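We read letters as residues; the integers encode the fold. Take this protein.
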Amino acid sequence: MTHAHHPHDTTRAPATARPLPRSIAVYTGSALGASPAVAEQVRAFGSALAKEGITVVYGGGRVGLMGVLADSALAAGGKVVGVMPRSLVNSELAHTELDDLQVVSTMHERKARMAELAEAFVALPGGSGTLEEFFEVWTWGQLGLHTKPVSLLDIDGSWQSLVAMLQDMVNGGFLARRHLDGLVIAKDTDSLLQQLSSWTPPQAKWT
């Protein structure tokens, strides 16, 4: 006996619904930073991702905010995957208690592997390396090379000067407003996850 498809079949989610990403690549500093409050919020973020069942994909380090993130997610029962170039592993910077530490040859391979493993990207406070990783993956999205959300977790206003600079780029005609509008900017974890679940990709740059 065959069953006709019911128009109100609830087994399929509406097209507009986007579940939480199952994995998030997190970019953050290999330094702790000057503010204990920032480290505490990074610790809470790692714990929150673990409790949501979201795999943390990160650079594999045990030092700085990277280490805080990994330790907090692991302590909360989460899965953490690190990706690290062999040269850094050999410097004994690798975290030794991860679920999975993937060792690659170069920094380029590291970023590509993290992008493959993640369904979304978030930058927490950090330095030039954090910015470099954030800008690359955000630019890839603008070019249509992926359709995954990219976000800034604006802990204690840490990204406000960057956001102001990006607004200047829009005003100057160097950055399309839709790409800045498509960047998820959140002050806390709940807001970040809510925005990631409702995100839709902006039109790619050359289309």
About this structure: The chain has eight helices and seven strands. The helical segments are 36-51, 64-75, 86-90, 107-117, 128-142, 160-171, 177-181, 189-197. The first helix runs from residue 36 to 51. Residues 68 and 103 are 20 Å apart (CA to CA).
